[in-house]
Each structure stands twice: as structure tokens, then as C-alpha cells.
Design brief:
Helices cover about 25% and strands about 35% of the residues. By secondary structure, it is an alpha+beta fold. Among the domains are: about 30-150, YVTN repeat-like/Quinoprotein amine dehydrogenase (Methylamine Dehydrogenase, Chain H, 7 Propeller); about 345-365 and about 445-535, no CATH class. Helix 3 (about 350-360) runs antiparallel to helix 5, helix 4 packs antiparallel against helix 5 (about 445-485) and helix 5 packs antiparallel against helix 6 (about 490-515). It is globular and about 95 Å long.
Length: about 525
């Protein structure tokens, strides 16, 4: 295994994270670093960047198995730099590939639970340790075989499965982080021993130990109720969560631990922190991280040179160490650049306005529409079905009878001396029928309402994809405008190229808003000119 020595990041509370990239499914769960390459595991496959996150390319996502929504969620990335391989775990098992070119091979899919999801993996020579919702597995890639080792593990309180989240090997000792605690392998008995004394549990009885890290001879654990440290190989744990913010349920949950030089970092449910051994507490390093629903879920931390990267549920963020010239200037946006960029914000519609216009142009049904559809479907089953039937049964017989025939003494003519008799006969009866019918079974289960709900879910997905697409294009355009202001193109070709890129993004926004974006921008410019003339 290649050991990469990096310079620790100098972090202070004044440092601000910068948003770098958001994939289509938003979430970035895991990061892998190989030399200058950055690999990210997203809600749909693996992406790779060769320029520190400026541009991203797909890394063989089409080779991975996908769910019914066409997605392949990647939970974990492991880089084997010595053998130039990349390993990933997904909701359909575990894969490996050459790191130079995507060529994914699935080597594990043996779980006995409903899902083939693998939570994490660790590579040790020819063995791969897999943490799954079906317990702990050891795979030998040379032999192509995998064996499960669950003896001594406690089943999950809710699912009843052996939910393992991470495995850590320290010398010859093997530790597991699981939903029900932390375990250590007893080699003599081939059985796991629970080492969870001192770790608090969640209201549902779980511990949710998600990650383990060896730091200066101590074992650290990121759990659902906080961060814990053991100085005796895991026999006793101490809560060291002081300074870490709480989630919406009041717990100091953590996902991941990362070491850079002498600095220990934690990725938590409420942001990013670095540990102060002197104060035995954590310092907040979350400024600039923005995630959905006011939460700060950070799943992973990684480092390239002196830059620190964070994987969150709203994309990838970077914390860059300021260069010397930037430290001397201290301010990046001041004077003309800051003013020009602010003016652009006034002249052009905001992202919320663009999102609203995109939804309006798409003419997607709203929540109120679907509520009305459901109500109408319900009312249809309450209102009875009326039937009216008017019917007459029987026969009508009309006939003539000649009583006297023709007189023999009279000359033949067309005149008849006969009595004309009309007789009418009626059989059967006439009736009217009015029927009222209620389909009472439809009041409890109606296929039409089921179809409406399915259509509502489909519309919600379309709306989310549209908003994600518009947001991504909008901010890519804004970043390009900012780059042109901070570092203006030095030659005509570069300037034209930058203008074309901005025009391309503008066209994409127009195509999603029916041309509204350009029209609104021009309207604001004219309004500003008129206001200036009036002054």
C-alpha cells in the first residue's frame, strides 16, 4: 500500500468552505484520492476529476447495476495505490476496477438479506473485509471466495439483521463498528466480543457506530450519539463530544474521522470539527458548508496537497489553504470586482426566480392539482350512477274481415260490397324503470387514485430533476462570470471563448424558461438605463 505524506491543513474558525461541485443526485457520500485524482461516490455512480474539482467525468457508471430508478448509489471508495486499483461498495454489492480506466468487476453479491447493499470495505493484501447489512464477510480475491463471520454479533434491534458499518484492522486485531456496538474478534474462538461499555445508545436502542480510527495509540469511534475514545484497546470508551453541535433530535452524531498530520477532524451530522487536545474539545470548522433542510450532514473528509475536501448531502466542498500572495492581499473581492459582481446580481434574475419560471414553463401539475384530482375521484364514488329504462312488451294485430264477398248479379268491378272490420289485439305490458347504483368498494380502494398517486410521485421526480438542472446551470454561469471578473481573459480568443461559455449557459436557462431569462435581464437593463437618465 502506498503511504502518501501530506502537509496538515492549517485550520482556523475564520476559514470558509467553498462549494465545488454538486452531482445530479446532489449527495456525495465518499471520496477517494489517488495522486492528483479525486474520485467521488455519488447517488449514481463514480465521478473523477483530474484538476482538483474544476471538471468532472463519469467513471464507468454504466457498468454498475442500477435500481428501478436507474441509479447506482456508491457508499464507499477504497483506493489501493500500490496495485493501482479502486474498490467501491454499492447497493448491489462490491466492485473493483483498474484505476487508470473503468473496468468494473463485481466480486461480491452473497448477502442473504433483501438488499445486496454493502456499507464499506477495507483491503488487506489479498483479503477484502466487507461490512454489510448481512454481517461481516471476508473475501479472498485470488480464490474468488467469500466467507461470513457473524458468530457473537448481536442482531439489529429493528431489522433483525447483522448490520455492520465498518471494519478496522490494527496489527493482528480486527474491530467492527456496527449498529449495535463495537466488536473485537476473538481469534481463538472465531467469535466477536462486544466492546461497547461507556457508549450511549439512541432511543431505539442502537449505537450506530459508523467509523473507527487509530490515532496516537488510541481508538476513536464515530457513533450516532457522539464521538468516543478508548485508551485500552476498546475495553472502555469515553465520550469526547464536547463542542460538537447537535442534530435535530438533540444528538451529537458523527459519520467519519480523518487525520491530517497531528490534526484530527470529524465529519458529523452538524458540520465539520477539529479536535483540540489541550482543551479536550472540538472546534467548529463548518463556515461555508450549506446543506438541505438546515442540516449539516458531512459524510467524508479527504485531503489533496493542502486542500481539504468534504462530502455532504448537497455536494462537494473544499477548504483551501490561502496562498502567500492571497494572504498578503487578504481580500479577494474588493473595489471594482466586488461592485461589478454585485451589479450583475441586480441586473439578472435570482436563482429562485429562475426556478419558478422553469416550473411555470414546464406546466407540471402542482400539489393542489393532485389534491383536486384525488377529491374528484373520491366524489365520483359517492355520487350514484343513474339509469332510466322505458320499455313496452307485447304485440299489436290489425286485420280486415270481408263478410259478404262479391255479388254474382252485378257486373265485375273494383267495388266490393263488404263490411270492413278493424280488430286490435294487445299482449304483454308497458313499464318504466329507474335504477341507482353505488360502487361502495371503490370508496376504500380505487385504482384511479392509485394511478394519481403514482403520477404525483413521477411529477415530483421530474420537478426535482428540473430544479437541480436549473440550479446547477445557474451557478455554473455565475461562477464563470466571477472568474472572468477576478481574472479577466488576456487575449481576444480567450475572451470570446469565455463569452461563448456564458452564452451557452444563458441559452440553457432560456430553453428551460421559454426565453424568459434573457427577456427579464434585458428588461432590467433598460429599467436601469431609464432610471439613470431620469436622474
Amino acid at each position: 500500500m502506498i503511504l502518501t505524506v501530506t502537509t496538515p491543513v492549517d485550520c482556523h474558525s475564520k476559514d470558509i468552505w467553498r462549494f465545488l461541485y454538486q452531482p445530479r443526485q446532489r449527495v456525495v457520500k465518499t471520496i477517494g484520492i489517488y495522486k492528483d485524482q479525486i474520485f467521488t461516490g455519488t447517488g449514481n455512480g463514480v465521478l473523477v476529476s483530474n484538476d482538483k474539482g474544476k471538471t468532472w467525468n463519469d467513471f464507468g457508471t454504466n457498468q454498475l447495476l442500477k435500481d428501478s430508478s436507474g441509479l447506482s448509489s456508491v457508499n464507499w471508495i477504497y483506493i489501493d495505490g500500490e496495485n493501482k486499483k479502486i474498490y467501491i461498495t454499492t447497493n448491489f454489492g462490491a466492485y473493483y476496477s483498474d484505476i487508470a480506466k473503468p473496468d468494473w468487476h463485481r466480486f461480491f453479491e452473497n448477502v442473504k438479506t433483501e438488499s445486496n447493499e454493502v456499507n464499506s470495505l477495507t483491503v488487506d493484501k489479498n483479503e477484502v473485509y466487507l461490512s454489510t447489512n448481512d454481517g461481516f464477510w471476508i473475501c479472498n480475491l485470488n480464490l474468488g471466495s467469500c466467507e461470513r463471520l457473524n458468530q457473537g454479533l448481536d442482531p439489529d434491534n429493528i431489522s433483525g439483521n447483522f448490520q455492520i458499518l465498518y471494519a478496522l484492522k490494527i496489527s493482528n486485531e480486527l474491530y467492527l463498528a456496527a449498529s449495535n456496538g463495537i466488536y473485537k474478534l476473538d481469534h481463538s474462538r472465531a467469535s466477536w466480543h462486544n466492546l461497547s461499555e461507556g457508549i450511549y445508545r439512541l432511543p431505539d436502542g442502537k449505537i450506530n457506530a459508523r467509523h473507527l480510527l487509530l490515532n496516537k495509540g488510541n481508538i476513536w469511534a464515530a457513533c450516532g450519539t457522539g464521538i468516543y475514545k478508548s485508551t485500552d484497546g476498546g475495553e472502555l470508551w469515553k465520550n469526547v463530544s464536547d463542542g460538537i453541535g447537535k442534530n435535530s433530535e438533540g444528538f451529537q452524531g458523527a459519520f467519519y474521522l480523518f487525520q491530517s498530520g497531528d490534526t484530527l477532524y470529524s465529519a458529523t451530522e452538524n458540520g465539520i470539527y477539529f479536535y483540540s487536545a489541550e482543551n479536550d474539545s472540538w472546534n467548529n470548522l463548518t463556515s461555508g458548508i450549506r446543506t438541505k433542510e438546515n442540516s449539516k450532514n458531512v459524510y467524508w473528509l479527504a485531503q489533496v496537497d493542502s486542500d481539504l475536501y468534504a462530502a455532504t448531502d448537497e455536494g462537494l466542498f473544499v477548504l483551501q489553504e490561502p496562498k502567500q500572495e492571497e494572504q498578503n492581499s487578504k481580500l479577494i473581492l474588493k473595489g471594482k470586482v466586488e461592485t461589478d459582481f454585485a451589479n450583475l446580481g441586480e441586473l439578472e434574475p435570482g436563482v429562485i426566480e429562475v426556478q419558478k419560471q422553469a416550473l411555470k414553463f414546464a406546466s407540471l401539475p402542482t400539489n393542489n392539482d393532485y389534491k383536486r384530482y384525488r377529491l374528484q375521484a373520491r366524489l365520483r364514488n359517492i355520487v350514484p350512477r343513474l339509469g332510466v329504462d322505458l320499455n313496452t312488451t307485447g304485440t299489436s294485430t290489425n286485420y280486415y274481415q270481408i263478410d259478404k264477398g262479391i255479388s254474382a248479379k252485378s257486373s265485375l268491378s273494383n267495388d266490393f260490397n263488404a263490411d270492413k272490420t278493424n280488430r286490435y289485439q294487445y299482449d304483454g305490458r308497458a313499464f318504466k324503470q329507474l335504477s341507482v347504483l353505488w360502487n361502495t368498494n371503490q370508496l376504500f380502494y380505487d385504482d384511479e387514485i392509485k394511478d394519481i398517486l403514482s403520477q404525483a410521485r413521477l411529477t415530483a421526480n421530474l420537478k426535482e430533476n428540473l430544479l437541480d438542472d436549473v440550479t446547477r446551470i445557474y451557478f455554473q454561469r455565475r461562477r464563470l462570470q466571477l472568474e472572468n471578473l477576478v481574472s479577466p481573459p488576456k487575449d481576444q480568443i480567450s475572451k470570446l471563448s469565455a463569452d461563448l461559455q456564458i452564452a451557452e449557459f444563458t441559452g440553457q436557462l432560456d430553453s428551460r424558461t421559454g426565453g424568459w431569462f434573457t427577456k427579464e435581464t434585458e428588461r432590467r437593463k433598460r429599467l436601469q438605463v431609464n432610471n439613470a437618465k431620469s436622474q
